[in-house]
Specification:
single chain; 222 residues; alpha/beta; TIM Barrel; 7 helices; 32% helix
């Protein structure tokens, strides 16, 4: 049985802002990536949302409780040079109760995550997409990401009271690592959320998936 995310389990009005289409990763099955070259697809305009635009939008947010998500669907939010200002502005809005950032983790340095986590506590949540217990394994999908930096950043944030989840996609090449990943997460008090990759790139075989599911059952029982 796979873990389920706790970050989203709140009755807030979730609003996702795509604040950038920049990303240092070349994930081959990502919709922003040309699978043959690893470069951004031709139709994608590479740009950052301006802080002024975000400020204008968030200032008109409804009175009901709002959770702001900066997701990395077409770019990693941590690539935005003003990400700190965006988080500060969102959480300064009275109706905003939480900010969630989805990231591959390999951008900026541990001090940024520790400082922001200590500043905002549970009002700031982060989901780190790290798909391996080594640089080599993670690079097979998240090409371009410094695995050690991503781990250091995630662990730095785990020392704060912010909400944190490690999102681990399971591929044909990394399914044997789920037990080790769970042990690392437990060591640092990090909730790990396993999910099988359902795209054709790197999809796990039926036989290995069945074996991996047994490993996950053992993890959940311990």
């Amino acid at each position: 049985m796979l873990n389920t995310s706790m970050i989203y389990e709140h009755n807030f009005l979730w609003t996702d802002f795509s604040i950038t289409t920049y990303c240092q990763a070349r994930c081959r099955s990502c919709s922003r990536t040309n699978p043959d070259t690893g470069e951004p697809v031709d139709w994608l305009e590479i740009s950052h949302m301006s802080y002024e635009m975000f400020d204008k939008i968030i200032s008109k947010s409804p009175d009901e409780l709002l959770a702001v998500q900066f997701c990395g669907e077409l770019g990693d939010p941590m690539m935005h040079p003003e990400i700190t200002k965006f988080v500060d502005r969102a959480l300064a809005q009275e109706s905003v109760v939480k900010v969630l950032i989805n990231t591959n983790g390999g951008l900026r340095h541990p001090k940024w995550y520790k400082d922001m986590g200590e500043k905002y506590g549970k009002r700031l949540a982060m989901a780190f997409g790290i798909d391996g217990t080594s640089h080599e394994s993670n690079w097979k999908y998240r090409e371009g990401v410094d695995w050690q930096r991503a781990m250091d950043n995630m662990i730095a944030m785990s020392t704060t009271k912010s909400q944190l989840e490690w999102h681990f996609l399971i591929f044909e090449w990394n399914w044997q690592e789920v037990t080790e990943a769970a042990a690392i997460a437990k060591q640092h008090g990090i909730k790990i959320n396993f999910k099988f990759n359902n795209r054709s790139f790197g999809q796990i075989s039926s036989e290995n998936k069945a074996t991996c599911e047994k490993l996950l059952e053992n993890i959940n029982e311990t």
